[in-house]
Amino acid sequence: MDHAAVLDLFDRDIREGARPDGPGARVERVGGVVRQVSSSHGWNGVVWSGLDEADADAAITEQIAHFSRLGREFEWKLYGHDLPVDLGRRLRDAGFTAEPEETLMIGEVADLTLDVELPGGVRILPVTDRAGVDLVAEVHEKAFGTDGTRWRHQLLAQLTAAPDTVVAVVAMAGDTPVSAARMELVPGTRFAGLWGGGTVEGWRGRGIYRALVAHRARVAADRGYRYLQVDAMSTSRPILERLGFAPLTTTTPYVFTPQLAG
């Protein structure tokens, strides 16, 4: 895989050419910024920017004003190769808070190691309805220690209105959900994104996360997607590298909450 060429393709197709990620969301292109505007339950933020030292601060100010008028917390998704090189510092100076850095990893589906087995007694359950979404949210809350209300609402809306754009699965040990994940399928591109992979404590280290990655990769291949993309935390990066994913750059969420500004 040509890393530079694939990263350039990712920037063009997924970021600069972004499509709404769910019902009720819209993508807007304003000057050198591509942003998504959604409801309070959806994701709001900047997915791409083509800025330089002369116009970066004005663009940041405009985005703050826009989302503040809407009363929306929003995220500026900054990648390690974005310009200007001090964009992260400019965002912090403007009142954004940086969340933990992740690694953008991409794998060519045909080259991935997919012969991964689930541990005995664990099965993969496709998620297609509210009951399944509740299971996924239960895993999410236990694995990450965060409230799943917003995430539950967004996934259910997507499964209802645009089921061809998302694949969600939950790993069940008997009647207990122990791991869950989803995949976003971006129509008209060669990329599918892996998101939300989490395993509850006590079930980690048994290969379930790897098995869910492999399962989704096979689905992506069946649907004609060439590349899989992951924003990997430090805990999942080694697993993904063993499966054949390559680190291409970093990505850091910078979050702005209007009511906390000033």
UniProtKB/TrEMBL annotation:
<dbReference type="InterPro" id="IPR000182">
    <property type="entry name" value="GNAT_dom"/>
</dbReference>
<keyword id="KW-0808">Transferase</keyword>
<protein>
    <submittedName>
        <fullName>GCN5 family acetyltransferase</fullName>
    </submittedName>
</protein>
<dbReference type="GO" id="GO:0016747">
    <property type="term" value="F:acyltransferase activity, transferring groups other than amino-acyl groups"/>
</dbReference>
<dbReference type="Pfam" id="PF00583">
    <property type="entry name" value="Acetyltransf_1"/>
</dbReference>
<dbReference type="InterPro" id="IPR016181">
    <property type="entry name" value="Acyl_CoA_acyltransferase"/>
</dbReference>
<feature type="domain" description="N-acetyltransferase">
    <location>
        <begin position="122"/>
        <end position="262"/>
    </location>
</feature>
